[in-house]
Structures are given as structure tokens and as C-alpha cells.
Amino acid sequence: MDELHLNVALLRARVPNLTVAARTAGLRPATVSNLCTGKIPVGKAEVRTLAMLADLAGCTMDELIIRGKPLEMLETGIKVLDLLAPVVKGGMVGLVARPGTGQMALLAELINRFRKKDFATIFWKPSEHTAGVDELLQESEDVCLTAEEIFGRIVHHAERRDVILGADRSMVLSGEMDDMKEKLKSLGVRPVTTLLVDVSGDAVDEEMPYGPLDTFLRFDTELTTRRLFPAIDPIVSTSVLLEGSQLEPQHLSIQQQARKLMRRYRELRPLVQFRGAAKLPETDQLLYLRGERLEAYLSQPFYIAEPYTKKKAEWIPFHEMLEDVRIILDGGADHVSIDELYFTGRLKV
């Protein structure tokens, strides 16, 4: 039977003052609190209690109750990822990009960052050698050529550490990835966070190049031509953590506002390029200005690029990043020049 969990993030987002609302509805606040913390298993809760909570949140029972283990965000310290397309711990992450837009660099950077956090990092080397593979060989703790090797290293590491696996799409298409994951699951090995790239560059033209994903990262050629890295498309890149409100209410709210702003900013960019910002209505001028600053803020120097760019990389703590984005959205950075925001860490206002 699937594990059952209360969708606490959704409940708190829909019912900000949950204790008062529960008491008003005739529920014991202590019972609701214990359900939220897991002290009372959802399976042992009264149906009446769950139905009343769903009614308070204005959602269905299916939305209120999560089947299986709750999803957990894996913080990367990379602003655009943690804000708009969070990595799911133990999930599948797919990087979709045209050649030369930075997918291999991002994979190498993620492996670098997770290795510093004491994750076991394994790279499943593809048969096809391409630009960026050498950096991955340097950054990864283990480099393997076969599914058997990968399986052995994962089993070895997973007893003590969480595992990050970098691999090419060919391992998914061949069925080797699924077979290996089934074997790991049968042994009760902790889930592996898998980062998938496509060294051939074919994935960008397919609707679902990797099959089901937990985090989808699409690279934007236009951002690359403007030298804005990581060149992650802020509109279409997404995560299953955004579905069903499985994020902190503050994160979900700021993420939604940021994506809405970036969508409008991108709609206005062609007009500004041809006619100038002064031709826009005053409201759109303000949105354009803030979108421009948010786009610049989301650029970020990488650790793996420090020898070449001479720019110091930083790990941007998640809640500090959210506060910076909130300030930009609220207009607190309207006076900051664009040049001050490109490839920086924290916002300085």
C-alpha cells in the first residue's frame, strides 16, 4: 500500500491561520498539528477530519493527501534553478539544449556543487565523446562505462551517502537506466538523483525526450547569445514540486510572481528593441524594468568557470535568494543598474 501524507504546503498556503480556522470549524488544533507533523499518520485520521481540512483548503481529498513519499527539494545554490525549477531529491532531471548553450557546463557545475556537499557523484560516460565531457570526468568522483559498474558504485555509496548520477540520454533510450533503477529499488537502495543530458543535441526537437521527469530544464538560445548564463528558460523550465503546492507557501508565491513577470518582460522585449521603452505604457515600462533586473540577477558565475572568467562563484542560500527576488518584484531594486546585477551573488541595494 502506498504511504499517505498530508499535503501540508498546500494546506498552509490555502489556510494561512490554520490553527484558528481548524478551531472555528470544530476541529482540535492539536489533532491538526499532529497530522501536519506526521505524529498522527494520515491512515489513522478520521475521514471526517480529513474531509473538513479539504473543505477548509477548498481542495479535493486527492489534492490534500499525497500518495508515496513526500517530494523534497534538493538545494543547488543556483538561483534560477532553486527559484523556478527546483531539483527533486531522488528524482530525474532532464537538461534539454541545443549544442553550445551550456548543458554540459551546468551538469559539471551541479556535480561540483553536490560533491562539495558530500554527495557521491557518479558519471556514466557515454560512448560518444563531445565537448564538455572532459570537465565532467574531472568533477565526478566515479566515472563508469557500463550499467554493471554504475550499479555497483551506487550500492557501495548509498549505504552512507546520497548519490548524484550524471548520464547521457542514450542510457535512458536503451532501457539500461530503467533496468538499473528497478534492481536498486528491489534491494531497497535509497533513490538516486539522476541528471540527464543529451550529447547528440537531438532532444531539443522532441516533446518528451527523456520520458517522465521530475525537473525539466530547457536552455534558451537567446540567453546564450546575450551571454547570460546559466541560460535556463524561465518560462518553460519547471518541476513537479510546483504541482500540488509541494513547496513552502512563500517559495510558491514568489516563484509564481517571478514567472509571471518574466513572461510579460519577454513579451515586451521585441517592442522595446524596435521602438524603445519610452513608447510603452507606464505600467509596462515598470514591468519591463523589473523583468530586466530579475533576468540579470538570475545570471550567476560558476565554480567550474572561475579559472576562465576570473569571477568568484557563490552558493546562494535558498531563503536569501527568495528575499532578493521579493525585493526586485516589489521595486526595491529599481534604482540598481543592470550592470551591477549581472553575474553577482546576493543583491546589494
UniProtKB/TrEMBL annotation:
SUPFAM superfamilies: C-terminal domain of alpha and beta subunits of F1 ATP synthase, P-loop containing nucleoside triphosphate hydrolases. One of its GO terms (molecular function) is ATP binding. One of its GO terms (cellular component) is proton-transporting ATP synthase complex. The keyword Cell cycle does not apply. The keyword ATP-binding applies. InterPro entries: ATP-synt_VA_C, ATPase_a/bsu_AS, ATPase_alpha/beta_chains, ATPase_F1/V1/A1_a/bsu_nucl-bd, ATPase_F1/V1_b/a_C, P-loop_NTPase. Residues 77-142 form the ATPase F1/V1/A1 complex alpha/beta subunit nucleotide-binding domain. Residues 246-304 form the ATP synthase A/B type C-terminal domain. Pfam families: ATP-synt_ab, ATP-synt_VA_C. It is found in: Membrane. It comes from the Bacteria. Keywords: ATP synthesis, ATP-binding, CF(1), Ion transport, Membrane, Nucleotide-binding, Translocase, Transport. Belongs to the ATPase alpha/beta chains family. This is ATP synthase subunit beta. It comes from Paenibacillus azoreducens. The gene is atpD_1.
